[in-house]
């Protein structure tokens, strides 16, 4: 089964400074079209302006690049206000200079201590009567303050407008996700000799994080999960002091960030040896994953009028895994880009609309048997209906591997 374990050199090197600059230039060139698409959506919905609060949206539409730790500490800095002819970005004194440098299409505004009143004042000055905002993304007190401070301003609940636009990826976005995948692939390949009997979850989680950071990641996409044996049955478990043991599985769920874009992969490896029963469970997961990927690839290569929906993809995987114990209760997959989890969704509760194209999403079925074993295989795929292609961006082998 283990003819040859993957080596770091099997995967692409980190992007060069020239490559990073090319991606930055591409974003700058595309930004006016992104704003035009959002403004067109606002017009079609009959609203005068849109309020966006996510830092992923701030980068996508304005160009300002917040660090991964800024999201919980930046207050309301990075919020965007976009009308048909005005574009403002909230930036308090910590971010004013950065906003002037990076968000060159937007006017920086200091929200002060009363962001609701600042939003209302901007709306009034720009003739905005109907303002679209996601009620789940801003505090209720801010929502109420906008209404109270802005005479005649109507807040229109709007969810997912920017997410739908960001779900469709251009070629340079897919290149960045692929580069982040390569960083993660290389890091796991370098870790393989250390996945041995007695190594602890926390130890290997740190080594994997260090490998990504030293191997080209500007940040982690999310905290590394390194789970041993029965702990692998926790879909979002946290690494601790438990040692890996021969005959058990080692599950790693991790991702890198490169030029703002993220990767996400899971590999379940066998330490020392693997029983026939455990290999059979692994094959059920792999069969389920490949059933969905094959169906999506066929639809793309045929040039169907539309791709299957995320709900259909999930149903295909569950049908292929029917009868297996412990079939996953989470979704089959999620979109990825400037955020680890974004549109589209592939799950039992996903939309029945066709998947967007071109786009990138994960396919990550699993089997979880409490206190005994967890197996999940996760890959990112890029699908392009117009280009009649489906490409797997995660290149670390998904066949069962024995380490140690």
Topology:
Elements: H1 17-45, E1 49-52, H2 55-62, E2 80-83, E3 87-90, H3 96-102, E4 107-109, H4 115-125, E5 130-133, H5 140-149, E6 154-157, H6 161-167, H7 171-191, H8 201-214, E7 219-220, E8 225-228, E9 249-254, E10 256-258, E11 261-262, E12 265-271, H9 276-302, H10 310-320, E13 333-335, E14 342-346, E15 359-363, E16 366-369, E17 373-376, E18 379-384, E19 389-392, E20 402-403
Parallel strand pairs: 1-5, 3-4, 5-6, 12-20
Antiparallel strand pairs: 1-2, 2-3, 7-10, 8-9, 9-12, 10-11, 13-14, 15-18, 16-17, 18-19
Helix pairs in contact: 4-5, 7-8, 9-10
Please identify, by name, the CATH architecture of the largest domain. Alpha-Beta Complex
Give the SSE string: HEHEEHEHEHEHHHEEEEEEHHEEEEEEEE
Radius of gyration: 23 Å
**What is the share of helical residues?**
25-40%
Task: Estimate what percentage of residues fall within beta strands.
Answer: 15-25%
pLDDT averaged over residues: 95
What's the CATH H-level superfamily name of the largest domain? Creatinase/methionine aminopeptidase superfamily
What is the domain tally? 2
Q: Which oligomerization state do the chains in this entry correspond to?
A: single chain
- Give the tally of β-strands: 20
Quote the distance from N terminus to C terminus.
Answer: 14 Å
Largest sheet: 6 strands, mixed
**Biggest sheet, spatial arrangement of strands:** 4-3-2-1-5-6
CATH topology of the largest domain: Creatine Amidinohydrolase
Strand-pairing-aware structural class: alpha+beta
Which stretches are poorly predicted, pLDDT < 50 over at least 5 residues? none
Query: Tally the helices: what do you get?
Result: 10
Which class of the largest domain in CATH terms?
Alpha Beta
Shape: globular
């Amino acid at each position: 089964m283990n003819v040859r374990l993957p080596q770091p050199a099997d995967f692409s090197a980190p992007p060069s400074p020239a490559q990073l600059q090319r991606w930055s230039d591409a974003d700058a060139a595309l930004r006016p079209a992104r704003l035009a698409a959002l403004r067109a959506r606002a017009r079609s919905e009959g609203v005068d302006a849109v309020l966006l609060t996510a830092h992923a949206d701030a980068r996508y539409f304005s160009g300002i690049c917040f660090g991964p730790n800024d999201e919980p500490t930046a207050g309301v800095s990075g919020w965007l206000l976009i009308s048909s002819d005005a574009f403002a970005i909230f930036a308090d004194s910590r971010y004013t200079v950065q906003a002037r440098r990076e968000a060159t299409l937007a006017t920086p505004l200091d929200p002060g201590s009363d962001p609701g009143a600042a939003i209302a004042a901007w709306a009034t000055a720009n003739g905005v009567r109907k303002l679209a905002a996601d009620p789940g993304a801003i505090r209720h007190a801010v929502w109420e303050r906008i209404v109270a401070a802005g005479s005649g301003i109507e807040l229109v609940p709007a969810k997912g407008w920017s997410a739908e636009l960001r779900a469709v990826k251009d070629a340079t976005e897919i290149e960045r996700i692929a580069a982040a995948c390569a960083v993660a692939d290389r890091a796991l390949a370098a870790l393989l000799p250390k996945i041995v009997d007695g190594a602890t979850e926390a130890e290997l989680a740190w080594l994997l994080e260090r490998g990504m950071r030293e191997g080209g990641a500007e940040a982690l996409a999310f905290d590394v999960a390194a789970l041993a044996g029965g702990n692998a049955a926790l879909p979002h478990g946290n690494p601790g002091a438990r040692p890996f043991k021969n005959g058990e599985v080692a599950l790693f769920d991790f991702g890198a960030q490169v030029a703002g874009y993220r990767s996400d992969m899971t590999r379940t490896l066998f330490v020392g040896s693997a029983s026939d029963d455990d290999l059979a469970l692994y094959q059920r997961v792999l069969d389920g994953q490949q059933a969905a990927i094959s169906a999506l690839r066929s639809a793309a290569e045929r040039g169907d009028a539309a791709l299957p929906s995320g709900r259909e993809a999930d149903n295909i995987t569950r049908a292929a895994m029917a009868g297996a114990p412990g079939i996953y209760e989470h979704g089959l997959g999620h979109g990825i880009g400037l955020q680890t989890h974004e549109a589209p969704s592939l799950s039992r509760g996903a939309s029945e609309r066709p998947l967007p194209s071109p786009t990138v999403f994960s396919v990550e079925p699993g089997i979880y048997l409490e206190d005994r074993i967890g197996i999940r295989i996760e890959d990112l795929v890029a699908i392009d209906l117009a280009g009649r292609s489906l490409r797997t961006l995660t290149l670390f082998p998904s066949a069962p591997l024995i380490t140690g």
